[in-house]
Design brief:
The protein folds into 2 domains: 1-92, no CATH class; 94-309, no CATH class. The protein has helices at residues 10-39, 41-48, 57-86, 90-93, 102-114, 116-127, 136-157, 162-195, 199-212, 220-237, 240-262, 280-309. The protein is an all-alpha fold. The protein contains 12 helices and no strands.
Amino acid sequence: MYAFLQHYPLYKKLMALGLLIIGCMILLSFLGLAIAALFWHNEVSGMLNHTENISALSNVGLMKFLQAFSQIGTFILPVILFALFTEGNIHKSLKLNIPIRFNSALFSILLIICIVPFINFLLTLNSYMQFPSFMSGIEDWMRRSEDSAAVLTQSFLEVNTFGGLMVNMFVIALIPAIGEEMLFRGVIQTMLVKNMRNKHIAIWISAILFSAIHMQFFGFLPRLVLGLVLGYLFLWSGSLYLSMLAHFANNAFAVTLAYLGTIQSIPQESGDLGSSFGEWVIVIISSLLASVFFYLIYRQGKSKELLDLG
């Protein structure tokens, strides 16, 4: 396919990317509904007529199905098309032609596990942030919206069968890890790094967009930190596979803890470690261990650069 967007300026590429995302999101959403109607006819009709309650078990399955299509349409399909239109080569454009080292992969997984208490602490800290008094109405609306989203997320996570766990691994862990990394690191961060003198600012911008796209102000700070971690993993390794792996590890860890909590193999609050201000020692240890693995990944990237130069 001819890469006719290759020599366009940055703002035109971003506009084209935005249009592709909107178009593909609408297309895949309608396709998902059409296919879902074959299996959940009554539920789909009820959703369209606003008469069905999405908390029903059958509708949770339906919502997962539709979410998978929505994520593919929002993140994966438009990025693939954009890569073809700009570079004519998906693997080269998205840095999918560069393998990752075993040590880097191992360190990134350990980093994600160790950083969980620190992320939980940031989530708690973020939840105490308040808008100015004149924006109290907006704050109340955002808190209600996020509470509703939390209820839906909890209904997604509460599965007590291995099959349900595998579905969650695919819908909640794998697809977002692939799609969001393709968009925010593979496309947006790469374009910004190429067009900005300061690559660190490029990483911060892509991380801010990554956090903002989730539309959850009271979870903005921890997602921003996660976006920064993923951005630097991508920068240092030169491979999108590493940030995808780390992103998947983060999602899969949460899905697994929720599953084990649901079947009562572990306490349900196990995933909240570090969220209490009284657990500051755990948060500090979490930060230190995560920093160690972060540094080791950085050293791996530097040694790779020296080998490439040699």
